[in-house]
Amino acid sequence: MIDIAKIAKVVDDAARNAKAIPQISAKHKISVEQGYAIQSAAFSRRMARGETQVGIKMGFTSRAKMLQMGIDDMIWGRLSDNMLIEDGDEINLSDYVHPRAEPEIAFLLGRTINHPCTAAEALAAVDAVAPAIEIIDSRYKNFKFSLADVVADNSSSSGFIVGSWALAETDLSNLGMILDFNGRPVQIGSSAAILGHPIRSLTAAARIAAAAGEPLQAGWIIMAGGATAAESLKPGVTVRNSVQDLGFAGFKVSD
Ligand code: OOG
Ligand code: MG
Fold first, then answer.
1. Which ligand is closest to the CA of 155, given by its number?
2. Does the N terminus or the C terminus of the chain have fewer Cβ atoms within 10 A?
3. Which residue's CA lies nearest to atom 3 of ligand 1?
4. What is the 3-state secondary structure (H, E, C) of the chain?
5. What confidence tens digit (pLDDT) does each residue in 225-245 have?
6. pTM attached to this predicted model
7. C-alpha of residue 214 to centroid of ligand 1, in Å
8. Going from the N-terminus, what domains does the chain have, and what CATH number goes with each?
9. Is 106 close to ligand 1, i.e. is its CB under 6 Å away?
10. 138 lines ligand 1 (CB under 6 A)
């Protein structure tokens, strides 16, 4: 028997203290389902400290991300208000283990989606879309993990930045996306890399969340997943994700 609460404390402490831990799977045989139970328990610890859930993130929704990490199953994690970094703000590397940035697209839900739905239904529930960046920061040493490990670790989610909201009607099917460090492109992709169309990430989120008994709520932000591989953050860089027709989201890493 594995102790879900005990392991949840270990991953939660690792995130809070920005201290790498060994993979859980090195010591315990855990299933993906148990990984999600650990994630849920670890997120409850955040809630107990006064954080609130403001959405969810989808992961491994592009080939580039699956190839980079060697995992080809879609995953999800929970986002709290405390994880939101204001567009343009500065972060400190000492608050992280080995953070990476990913160019993403965010959806803002105007209505709750409490059942699996079609792309058209999902789109009807969207209030706005925005260019976004996710800061992922695996709490595991060397950023190495199994599927169950990464799920337990809130799917590596650490922070997220959302740019100005744009019209939900924006055609997201094939928008150029450029992640740049100090103006130099480091990852270039297209929104089409996200499951062929980012709306599919939202329908997948709706299905998964409904199945988990935690349906997507009105007002929540849904992060669609990285369109390209993630890029390691360095001291002093200004990071920006420019999405064609949507604009920018960015932040700075202090020296
Ligand atoms: C897991 C998180 C993946 C994405 O956008 O695909 C993810 C990781 O790569 O550490 O957030
Ligand atoms: Mg991501």
1. 1
2. N
3. 59
4. CCCHHHHHHHHHHHHHHCCCECCHHHCCCCCHHHHHHHHHHHHHHHHHCCCCEEEEEEECCCHHHHHHHCCCCCEEEEEEHHHECCCCCEECHHHCCCCEEEEEEEEEECCCECCCCCHHHHHHCEEEEEEEEEEECCCEHHHCCCHHHHHHCHHHEEEEEECCCEECCCCCCCCEEEEEECCEEEEEEEHHHCCCCCHHHHHHHHHHHHHCCCCECCCCEEECCCCCCCEECCCCCEEEEEECCCEEEEEEECC
5. 999 999 999 999 999 999 999
6. 0.98
7. 21
8. 4-253 (3.90.850.10)
9. no
10. yes
